[in-house]
Amino acid sequence: MLFWIVAAALTFGACLLLLAPLARGNANAADAQAHEIEVYKDQLLEIERDMARGLISASEAELARAEIGRKIIRLSDAQQTAGSTAPSRPLARWIGAAAILSLPLVSWGLYAATGSPFYPGQPLQARLERDPSQAFVDELIARAEAHLAANPNDARGWDVLAPIYLRLGRYSEAATAFANASRLDEPTAARLAGEGEALTAAANGQVTADALARFEAALALQPDDLPSRYFVALASDQAGNGEEAGRMWQEMREGLPQGSPWHGVIAAAMDGEDAAASGDDQAAMIENMVASLAARLEANPHDVDGWQQLIRSYMVLERPQDAQSALDRGRAAMGPASPEGGHLAAYGLSLGLEVEQ
Amino acid sequence: MIVEIGHFALVLAFALSLVLSVAPLVGARMGDARLMGLAEPAALSILALVALSFAALTVAYVQSDFSVANVWENSHSAKPMLYKITGVWGNHEGSMLLWVLILAAFAALVALFGGNLPATLRANVLAVQGMIAAAFLLFVLASSNPFERINPPPIEGQDLNPILQDIGLAIHPPLLYLGYVGFSICFSFAVAALIEGRIDAAWARWVRPWTLAAWAALTGGIAMGSYWAYYELGWGGYWFWDPVENASFLPWLSGTALLHSAIVMEKRSALKIWTVLLAILTFSLSLLGTFLVRSGVLTSVHAFATDPTRGIFILMILIAFIGGSLALFALRASSLTAGGVFHPISREGGLVLNNLFLTTAAATVLVGTLWPLIVESVSGEKISVGAPFFNMTFGPLILPLLLAVPFGPLLAWKRGDLYAASQRLFVAFGLSLAIALATFFIVDRVSVLAALGIAVAFWLVFGALTDLALKAGIGKVSPSVALRRFIGLPRSVFGTSLAHAGLGLTTLGIVAVSALEVERMAVMHPGDAMEVAGYELRFDGMFPFEGPNFTEEQGRFTYLDRSGRERGEIVSSKRFYPARQMPTTEAGIASRGFSQLYVALGDRAPDGGIVVRAWWKPQVLFIWIGCVVMMLGGAISLLDRRLRVGAPAARRARPARPFVEPAE
Question: What's the gap in Å between the CA of B265 and the closest CA on chain A?
Fold first, then answer.
């Protein structure tokens, strides 16, 4: 309701302000010539000041005065011929009325089409203080976060939050939450496996050394922990031991009860393992992309990001000589002394390439 | 509720701007004082409403109201308060709102302080300003509405681009916009003059303060942007000839030309048509800059979101205003009378020369900026015009101008004496040459070019001082008289000298850094040291640090001078902002006098070390100090009493009539 009152007051106020000049009489302001003469008078005074200061000589001042004098005379002639301002015509009054009427029409019409007048503001602090039963999931998370920020040693709080983070895709926060729970209470297989899974997800599905260590620690505590067994197998698959991974998955599958969701997961993993054998096409495709990038940079060498990408690609393909020559060409193209050239050199240095200074 | 009030205020401001763009124009045409009188209250109300709207958005940011889409996209509850506020314009929608706010503020200033303007001119100027406001308010409301809501509201925002989370965001955009938008007033004056079909010396006098103010703000905005890029990007460069930088530099070049041609027009009634054209072109270049940056045709830190409809919308505004004003110019320019005549060697001649060089330089930069876009749209091929192009074209164009600058203020109006001016500059010339020789023999024996560049820089500074000394009569009259005359000099004389000297200081910084900079690069481990221009930089190690909304790895360095004494610590860091998953670099800078030791961290090397780049940047601070001095010159010039022409005593206004009256 308050919104409507304020909106109406604003509209009304704007209309009133515009009414004021319309209500006033059609008083003639001083006309343009008078303004101009004022400027010329000021210029004459300025000449006097300049002469008094010795900035211009007396003869120069005389010439300048004469020039301004001629302009004033020309103006006064024109003034006699030009009439003064015409009286207000009815048409003008209609235009004035239309102008004022247009304010509420345009503003309320446009606002009705675009605004959300019934949607109150949602300041964060106020939302967090409201009754939790009406809250959304993310609001509950925010409450839990606020609680943990105040009581960071509450292991149970971290236990609650960690799997939610994992589900929502906030992987690095999930890993920290699992680790906090382990640190504050004690490492359990579930906490360790959860942390490993979060680390793996954060690395785009790569079971990193850190993650593998967590899974192995979990298996030491509880040798039949299913997630840990699955990820340890995945790790050896990613390390190139496809056969061993297949054997471990097979073993795992045999021990699974009927209807376990792990059946599907393992089947999918084993399918992927078979498909990975045909990696040659992919390598050829990558080679092609790198070659076309190199060709593009040859034609249009002023592209720092492009050079950086090319150097990185060569390093990934384990062709350090090509990377070195790409670095040298890139620096030459940018100019070794330019900021871009320097940036490229620093990048090369970080990859272990040689940079002559 | 406050959010919706802000939205409504913006819509109401749009309605008012429609009235402002029509009623006073018609009033001026019909000679009706009442309709013309609508202009002032309308302009002031627009400012009040847009300010209310801006305040409402700011409140939404401060309160982290994520039911506002714009706040959700660009803020985060853990962000420090300063960045919550500056974040208001650290995004497309909010920055356009700031643009409109400044536009409204300038129109309100004309309404408040335009009492000395003829009524029709004032009405027409405000009407044109109203048209610009209407176009941009419509743009904001239709395609970039900062008040769009989300229901249900998310609980956390997506944070502001980390590169923008810096004090620079508080200064650079507002100053730059003051400059960009300030030129809209000159544009409105030019178009109003064309609509009226008459233009006189007085016009130039009214336009000059606006040009000065806009120019000074733009100078500061560009300088701040350059310093920000210098310390934030960690590349050690201060100017990259990046299209976005050029977009701000173009109106500066033509605005500088406008500033000078307006002097000729004011003093001698010459160059009228040219000045009007420059006023139109300068604002057109500002609009072009806005288009390039906001439409997403360029990818850079400034292109917040790319949405083709926005680009097309701004392009239409661009075509309407540039095309419309140029068409009007073509129709009416011939009716403007030519003014006083002058000899080529004269103050006027010098200012024309300045204009020739500046506009040619602007054209060169424009071509270099637009060429890649044209090529890409025609052939689809991506090319980039880099620094080499600009160094080869812009450099040679600007050098003769720099050499000529000290002569200008010494030449007399109408017919000057070049020989006499040269004689008076003899001392300045001698001193500059001596400094060049000293630089060559003492500082650096390698680069002749550096010595010459430094000579040019000092030539500008000493030339500016010579002008002041001559005008005060130092050497000709007794010291006490000279002092009195010096104090009594018009402010604009000081303004000119400061601006020209500032140009010299900036040149000094650029030359010193380009020619004498030292760069070192190495993979360092804790305990390692490297030598940079006589200083020893010792790497103490990497230390983790937790910021409010980022994590940081700080590389700490100690630098020692030649005698092995510790001179101070430098902290250079790499930050990571989890909300946006983005890393940034924070260069570590230690100032020694006007020079700086600049340290940036690179990536980790495979052996566990870290790539460290260190620069010795001699006299680098003069680049920005010079700009501040130029700005100061503009500000002092603005205080000149000449620019405050009084209003003529108005004829007594008839007593106000009642509002309802019979038709005449």
Answer: 13
Mean pLDDT of A135-151: 76
Work out the pLDDT band at A280, boundaries 50, 70, 90: low
Residue B298 is predicted with a pLDDT of 65
From chain A, the residues in CB contact with B610 under 8 A are: 350
Judge whether A211 lies within some domain: yes
Q: How far is B427 from chain A (nearest CA, A)?
A: 20
Chain B residues within 8 A of A49 when measuring between CB atoms? 490
Is pLDDT larger for residue B598 or for residue A38? B598
| CATH number, domain with residue A316 | 1.25.40
So what's the pLDDT on residue B557?
94
pLDDT at B10: 96
Q: How confident is the model at residue A83 (pLDDT cuts 50, 70, 90)?
A: very low
Provide the pLDDT for residue B655.
Answer: 40
Q: Which of A275, A303, A337 is the last residue of a domain?
A: A275
Find which of B17, B29, B38 to mutate to test the A interface (most A CBs within 10 Å of its CB): B38
- Taking an 8 Å cut-off on Cβ atoms, the answer to whether A107 and B15 are in contact is yes
Average pLDDT on A48-69 reads: 79
Residues A207 and A235 in one domain: yes
Instruction: Flag whether residue A168 sits within 8 Å of chain B, measured between CB atoms.
Output: no
| CB of A164 less than 8 A from some CB of B | no
User: What tens digit of pLDDT does each residue of B24-53 get?
Assistant: 999 888 888 888 889 999 999 999 999 999
| A249 confidence band (pLDDT: 50, 70, 90) | confident
Query: With pLDDT > 90 as the criterion, what percentage of chain A qualifies?
Result: 11
A194 and A174 inside one domain: yes
Together in a domain, A141 and A165: yes
Range of the domain at A153: 132-275
In this structure, are A253 and A324 located in the same domain? no
Q: Is the residue at A296 inside a domain?
A: yes
Topology of domain B1-160, per CATH?
Four Helix Bundle (Hemerythrin (Met), subunit A) (1.20.120)
**Residue-range domain boundaries for chain B:** 1-160, 166-405, 425-516+627-631, 518-617
Residue A99 lies in a domain: no
Same domain for A268 and A137: yes
Taking alpha carbons only, the member of B354, B330, B217, B344 closest to residue B276 is B330
In this complex, the residue of A54, A67, A102 whose CB is nearest that of residue B15 is A102
- Residue A301 contacts B where some CB pair is shorter than 8 Å: no
Total number of domains constituting chain A: 2
Q: What is the CATH number of the domain that holds A155?
A: 1.25.40.10
Residues of chain B with pLDDT under 50: 649-664
Residues B521, A342: C-beta atoms closer than 8 Å: yes
Asked if pLDDT for residue A283 goes beyond 80, the answer is no
So what's the pLDDT on residue A85? Answer: 47
Specify the pTM. Answer: 0.82
Residues A317 and A240 in one domain: no
> Average per-residue pLDDT in chain B?
86
- For A:229-268, CB contacts with B below 8 A are none
Among chain A residues, the shortest Cα distance to B612 is held by A346
Q: Does A81 map to a domain? A: no
Mind telling me how many Å the CA of A27 is from chain B's nearest CA? 5
**Any B CB within 8 A of A12 CB:** no
Contact B1 A3 (CB under 8 A): yes
